[in-house]
Design a protein that fits this description.
The chain has helices at about 10-25, 40-50, 65-70, 70-95, 125-140, 160-170, 190-205, 220-235, 265, 275-300; strands at about 5, 25-30, 55-60, 95-100, 145-150, 155, 175-180, 180-185, 185, 210-215, 220, 240-245. The protein is α/β, with parallel strands linked by helices and about 300 residues long. It has a domain at about 5-160 and about 185-220 and about 260-275: NAD(P)-binding Rossmann-like Domain (Rossmann fold), CATH 3.40.50. The strands form 4 sheets. A 6-stranded parallel beta sheet has the order 2-1-3-4-5-10, sandwiched between helices. The protein has a two-stranded parallel ribbon with strand order 6-9. Helix 5 (about 125-140) links the parallel strand 4 (about 95-100) and strand 5 (about 145-150). Helix 1 (about 10-25) packs across helix 7. The radius of gyration is 19 Å and the shape is globular. The N and C termini lie far apart (about 50 Å). About 45% of the residues are buried. Catalyzes the reduction of dTDP-6-deoxy-L-lyxo-4-hexulose to yield dTDP-L-rhamnose. This is dTDP-4-dehydrorhamnose reductase. Pathway: Carbohydrate biosynthesis; dTDP-L-rhamnose biosynthesis. Belongs to the dTDP-4-dehydrorhamnose reductase family.
Amino acid sequence: MSTWLVTGAGGMLAQDVLGRLAAQGIGAVGLDRAALDITDPDAVRRALRRHRPEAVVNCAAWSDVDGAEGQEEAAHRVNATGPRHLAEAAGETGAVLLHLSTDYVFAGDASRPYAEDAPTAPRGAYARGKRAGERAVLELLPRTGHVVRTAWLYGAGGANFVRTMIRLEGERETVDVVDDQHGQPTWSRDLADLLLRLGRGALAGTVPPGVHHGTSSGETTWYGLTREVFRLLGADPGRVRPTTSAAFARPAPRPGYSVLGHEGLRRAGVEPLRDWRAALAEAFPCLVAAERGKSRERHATRR
């Protein structure tokens, strides 16, 4: 039976990847940070030699965008050096590597979707590290390396913007949300399904190596997304008020426009992810249940 290895197994996306692999009857090993530190080359090599996976899905990442500004060296080890170690070990064992990256590798100043081969221009420590990780995978694994860029990820298995807005709807009369950043809200379960399709295609030789864009179709702003969250909750979307990025100054720069194109997937015969609204509507019951369960835990802890 084939085996896939998933790093960063404690995270939201990895949980969905492991769940979808199990649902498809594909053998999988999930390794969280305690079980595998991808910044340790010897540990990475031992893990791949032990499990001999056909495919590796790298969900391990430093995801604290603002924290990376003050700890760039540490973030670089996880987001750039770690993928290099995985690529080296995958090359030695013959495994296909699916490495998760981000829309932040682009400048974020475009006016139409970025193609897979559009010039990158990372701004900020987090973005520089992620771009370096992409380069390592593509250079070391020219025939078996796959970089999958995603963005605005949400799901039931972890903290994220959508779950936060679900909580704030019950706590505040109005919510101010940025309306000058454009992107693609993406359900982690949809992305997990795409990763399985890409991995299977890569193993079968039908999906070429390189860069793929794993985001939902369509686009919106954080403000537009929050209005949709309120609508799905049965709340008045008028309680959501638009504001600008300047009102929420952060250490790391945010892209103003980071919508990703999907022509590369179509050329490879892979169907891109569905429209973000359809995905959010299907995901919503489990998101509400997860967030309200977390709220009950918080209230119980305070007693």
